Amino acid sequence: MSNQNFRNGDRNDDRYADMFTRLDAANEGAFVPFVMLGDPDIATSLEILKALAEGGADALELGIPYSDPIADGPTIQQASIRALSHKIHPSDCFEVIRQFREIYPDTPIGLLLYSNLVIKPGLEKFYNDAANAGVDSILIADVPLREADRFIAIANETGIKQILIAPPNASNETLAEIGQKSQGYTYLLGRAGVTGAETAATIPASELIAKLTQYKVAPPLLGFGISKPEQVKEAITAGAAGAISGSATVNIIEQNLSQPEVMLSKLREFVSAMKQATKK
Amino acid sequence: MNHLESKFGQFGGMYVPELLIPALDQLEQAFIDAQSDPEFQKEFMELLTDYAGRPTAMTLSRNLVSNPNVKLYLKREDLLHGGAHKTNQVLGQALLTKRMGKTEVIAETGAGQHGVATALACALLGLKARIYMGAKDVERQAPNVFRMRLMGAEVIPVNAGSGTLKDAVNEAMRDWSATYDKAHYLLGTAAGPHPFPTIVREFHRMIGEETRAQIMAKEGRLPDAVVACVGGGSNAIGMFADFIDEPSVQLIGVEPAGKGLHTAEHGAAIGKGTTGILHGAYSYIMQDEDGQIEESYSVSAGLDYPAVGPQHAHLHDIGRATYAAVTDDEALYAFQLLSRKEGIIPALESSHALAHALNMADEAEDGTIIVVNLSGRGDKDLAHVHSILGGQTNE
């Protein structure tokens, strides 16, 4: 597994590698929106994913609603609460992904969720269900490197890429380990704290990005506190392979709950503006 | 890497965002250093003795047990400053906070007992405390909210989720992930990610050590059983720790059965829960088929938590400790009985342990010695119990 290098694209089902190859050729970075599956309900959720893709999202990062999201600020907590109020199950979420995958066979899809949703059904079942639905990667917010090995082992068996987080306070030792183990992409935290657009990301100094390259981590996508096109541009200028925006995307959903058509068109516009900023 | 074992068998671990790992490692190192630092130990011991009032008494009950040949002792943590065992470990962690050069303390509280203990320790040691408390609990526990504020702590109501303890823990962890440079998260029970379960146990282990010395002085032998209530499990692990390697001593934890284990309204994570991860540790938790955390219930806010400390999960799995459950009604009965028969008003939490110990005493052979940890006093529960009993007390 040590040959899971930076932008290794020799597997034809490696959608992330294909995406980065395509973006490199076009001289662009990646823009990846995050939304919570099942928010505000299952039917609208599929329409939202389609709107994000139509707006130009290079990949999607998707949450599965959870009762106790300790790494999330109020915006994404509320998204979980809205989805759970409709009794959304992980199986419903996989079904939305499967339907989206039929329409968009090449868009990389990542899950970002909490460990207990994986532990309860059993790692093997969860990763298999995800793979069968068309998921490319899994990031578990409350599984740090120190607990990650058994998750990475199952990921490798099921063809899923285990995404690791590089926090701004990571030691060289941690970065080196991420370098050995990361696949797909690396989630680079823009700042400390929880998710939310209220506190802006600190675009990391080029030294940190240079360090990531030195340790051969998978391409870094900057997340946490990214809500504006200027921040996307700045992140890419600093050397990130792209940017992830969650709370700003979810805010659009929250503010337009009563008018789904407006919500979808605003999502398309938002993604389009953020994507525009990835062009170097 | 960890210097101390982060797991108890398969339980425990550090299931937290990567961002918090450096703060947990720093805490582990500070704890290891402090444990072998005579200056730290001296200051901790002085605070426990001169400020908190250790050692606490051990009282042989005079009127509770009908069989004169069965002895029931009460370990009187209710007499500790602050009104519960909580003060022990809070003093220890507050000293660690200073040792790490941090100036702020974050804490969660359910009934307010851990919040009060945190507030008093921070007032004493010059630390700035902010305490997260479920909005529902803020309403239900107004006197404790006032106590915390009197002692200078900021109390922050949490509206998210169920507005109770687990949501307060979530919010405290969120705060910590943005402020770990200057703030210590002073977790209130023997749960959460490593190294908290170990630190909390070690800072409460004098409960069992004193019990051992006191029972040896009075009886010349170890007790047959020690009994303690278990929410997260801090007073129980403090009582058990010194007896784990004494196979003749039964360790008995008592979980809240609420309105009955056959209902959904209880807090018996070991008794009725399944294994999973909550608040950073793999343990027994209350959850649905998907892994969503369920709300717990108990008449006693301090036991109203849908998980249990990982060492208890392990002690249960290896059969070293036994976990029983006691309903609201049984606990309320024991609450009144101790008040009536011995002139001690116990916390509702401790009343659970007492209720089970009384059942054991009724069935025990002649010569049996049982120690129950009376983890707190009942002042905080008076209004609640009064409203339940409607002004009527029975025997």
From TrEMBL, chain A:
Gene3D superfamilies: Aldolase class I
Catalytic reaction list: (1S,2R)-1-C-(indol-3-yl)glycerol 3-phosphate + L-serine = D-glyceraldehyde 3-phosphate + L-tryptophan + H2O
Taxonomy, superkingdom: Bacteria
E.C. no: 4.2.1.20
Database matches in Pfam families: Trp_syntA
InterPro entries listed in its UniProt record: Aldolase_TIM, RibuloseP-bd_barrel, Trp_synthase_alpha_AS, Trp_synthase_suA
UniProt entry tagged with the keyword Lyase: yes
Pathway: Amino-acid biosynthesis; L-tryptophan biosynthesis; L-tryptophan from chorismate: step 5/5
CC annotations in GO: cytosol
MF terms (GO), sorted A to Z: tryptophan synthase activity
Alphabetical keyword list: Amino-acid biosynthesis, Aromatic amino acid biosynthesis, Lyase, Tryptophan biosynthesis
Active site annotation, chain numbering: 61 (proton acceptor), 72 (proton acceptor)
CDD domains named in the record: Tryptophan_synthase_alpha
Subunit structure: Tetramer of two alpha and two beta chains.
Family annotation (HAMAP family): Trp_synth_alpha
UniProt similarity note: Belongs to the TrpA family.
Stated role: The alpha subunit is responsible for the aldol cleavage of indoleglycerol phosphate to indole and glyceraldehyde 3-phosphate.
Name under which the protein is recorded: Tryptophan synthase alpha chain
Organism encoding this protein: Paraglaciecola mesophila KMM 241
GN (gene name): trpA
Automatic annotation (TrEMBL), chain B:
Keyword terms: Amino-acid biosynthesis, Aromatic amino acid biosynthesis, Lyase, Pyridoxal phosphate, Tryptophan biosynthesis
Family: Belongs to the TrpB family.
GO cellular component, one term: cytoplasm
Catalytic activity field: (1S,2R)-1-C-(indol-3-yl)glycerol 3-phosphate + L-serine = D-glyceraldehyde 3-phosphate + L-tryptophan + H2O
Protein name: Tryptophan synthase beta chain
EC number(s) recorded for this UniProt protein: 4.2.1.20
Cofactors named for this entry: pyridoxal 5'-phosphate
